[in-house]
């Protein structure tokens, strides 16, 4: 199909061949359906189609099954005959087994090249979402980022942010005059959430070298686009981290890529699997941001495809922008399920040959209800479609083959070694050590001055033999004085003082008064 990605169709009770028009592929899309209905295979054949058309792809491999894109299918595979029969039935004349150029990425650096960003690039909004902060705590985090910019403190990894929050707490009195109250409790809560992120492995996400978006958009010498696969099976253990990372990546694409209008084919196609994780409990500000990105990023030549179990998982304002749709079966076991099924069926342009709601409920595994954008971006009539079989291996690669693909990748060695350059943590540590040294020097100088002042106030003099105090009230007894003479001198000295004179006056006064 010229200018289209073949999806399927054909056969009795089915319409014409269905294809996704490349010119409208940046108008976004939806792949939905209950567990086990064939969403993963649909995602696989879409990735194959885009790569074959020279369009780079980024997708997350939640179950570990999509790594097979790197290898060709095999005639020894148990479903080989079923695939061949399906290809004949739907008119897939040039069906053949082949692998595709794949680059594996892994946030933890275990099953692919490490993928990192910096704390600054993530920004306070997404970090607040990641840590589930309250409004007050998010305000404190915004102050921290503002101060980092003003004071030239690069925030690259988590320890940079932790050090900055400590500094913020120590100087909160001065900062509050300009930015408002900075609560110690809020800082403590943020620090605890950062510790939770560390325990989940998020410290491996933040650092350098940071991911360069250009490395996701390679087109090979043979004209095929690169398929970037993010290993997400382990990452799904921290679903908030998974969703935040993908949203950050989408935001970065939006910020950095130039405007291209409506190209003949996308510059990149981005698949967001388990999309409901992005919106579960998301604050309105975040949903608004996703809606803005979805609306505007198509002009950057990027198509975004949400993969989820139910269209109801996607906010209505975003769902309305998803023009290309593949709807696998939905099961209506509850009243809520029936309501969601009815709403899903009403979003399609009806086909007089069948009831859309019934078709969505009845289609089997490997079948779907599809609607693709047509000329001028008009939604096509809904059709029941047999999804074409994949050309690449169905199921995961064995670990040895995967390691070979990673080792031979053009990205090998570029991101493997973590770089810890001078940033906020080191700068604040240097300032703290310098301040401590200055304080120690000042304390030593003060101690020295204090000793000198005591020496001066006590008026110590050197007599040649010993130090004596001129202010001493005791009388040094000479060796030739008798004990009586010494006592007499002492009494005379005391009586000559003020106290002594008072005593004498008191005694004499008493004597005279007695007379």
TrEMBL record:
Query: What are the coiled-coil residue ranges?
Result: 425-455
Sorted keywords for this record are: Coiled coil
All copies of the Helicase HerA-like C-terminal domain together span 15-511
InterPro entries assigned: HerA_C, P-loop_NTPase, T4SS_component
Name the Pfam families for this protein. Answer: HerA_C (PF05872)
Q: Does the keyword Coiled coil apply?
A: yes
Q: Does the keyword Coiled coil apply?
A: yes
This chain belongs to the protein called Helicase HerA-like C-terminal domain-containing protein
Protein source organism: Shimia haliotis
Q: What is the lineage of its organism?
A: Bacteria, Pseudomonadati, Pseudomonadota, Alphaproteobacteria, Rhodobacterales
């Amino acid at each position: 199909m010229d200018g289209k990605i073949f999806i399927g169709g054909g056969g009795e009770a089915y319409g014409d061949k269905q294809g996704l028009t490349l010119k409208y592929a940046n108008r976004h899309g939806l792949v939905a359906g209950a567990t086990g209905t064939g969403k993963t295979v649909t995602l696989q054949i879409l990735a194959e189609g885009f790569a074959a058309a020279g369009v780079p792809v980024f997708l997350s491999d939640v179950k570990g099954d999509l790594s097979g894109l790197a290898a060709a299918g095999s005639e020894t595979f148990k479903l080989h005959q079923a695939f061949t029969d399906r290809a004949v039935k739907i008119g897939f004349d040039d069906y053949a087994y082949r692998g595709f150029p794949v680059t594996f990425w892994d946030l933890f650096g275990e099953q692919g090249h490490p993928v990192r960003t910096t704390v600054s690039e993530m920004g306070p909004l997404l970090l607040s979402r990641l840590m589930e902060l309250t409004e007050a705590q998010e305000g404190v985090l915004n102050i921290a980022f503002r101060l980092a910019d003003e004071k030239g403190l690069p925030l690259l990894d988590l320890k940079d942010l932790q050090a900055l929050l400590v500094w913020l707490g120590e100087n909160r009195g001065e900062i509050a005059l300009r930015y408002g109250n900075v609560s110690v409790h809020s800082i403590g809560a943020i620090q605890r959430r950062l510790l939770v992120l560390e325990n989940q492995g998020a410290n491996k996400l933040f650092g350098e070298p940071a991911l360069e978006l250009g490395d996701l958009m390679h087109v090979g010498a043979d004209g095929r686009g690169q398929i970037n696969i993010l290993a997400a099976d382990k990452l799904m253990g921290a679903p908030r981290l998974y969703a935040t990372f993908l949203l950050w990546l989408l935001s970065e694409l939006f910020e950095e890529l130039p405007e291209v209008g409506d190209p003949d084919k996308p510059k990149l196609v981005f698949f967001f699997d388990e999309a409901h994780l992005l919106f579960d409990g998301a604050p309105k500000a975040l949903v608004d941001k996703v809606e803005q990105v979805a609306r505007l990023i198509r002009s950057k030549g990027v198509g975004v495809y949400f993969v989820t179990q139910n269209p109801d998982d996607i906010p209505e304002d975003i769902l309305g922008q998803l023009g290309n749709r593949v709807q696998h079966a939905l099961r209506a076991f509850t009243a809520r399920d029936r309501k969601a099924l009815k709403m899903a069926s009403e979003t399609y342009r009806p086909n007089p040959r069948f009831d859309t709601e019934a078709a969505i409920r009845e289609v089997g595994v490997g079948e779907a209800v599809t609607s693709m954008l047509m000329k001028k971006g008009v939604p096509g009539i809904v059709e029941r479609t047999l999804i074409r079989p994949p050309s690449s291996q169905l199921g995961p690669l064995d670990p040895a083959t995967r390691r070979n693909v990673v080792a031979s990748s053009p990205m090998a060695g570029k991101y493997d070694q973590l770089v810890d350059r001078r940033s906020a943590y080191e700068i604040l540590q240097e300032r703290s050590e310098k301040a401590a040294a200055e304080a120690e020097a000042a304390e030593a100088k003060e101690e020295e001055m204090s000793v000198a002042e005591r020496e001066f106030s006590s008026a110590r003099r050197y007599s040649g033999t010993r130090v004596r105090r001129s202010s001493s009230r005791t009388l040094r007894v000479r060796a030739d004085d008798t004990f009586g003479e010494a006592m007499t001198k002492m009494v005379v000295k005391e009586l000559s003082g003020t106290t002594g004179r008072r005593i004498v006056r008191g005694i004499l006064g008493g004597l005279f008064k007695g007379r």
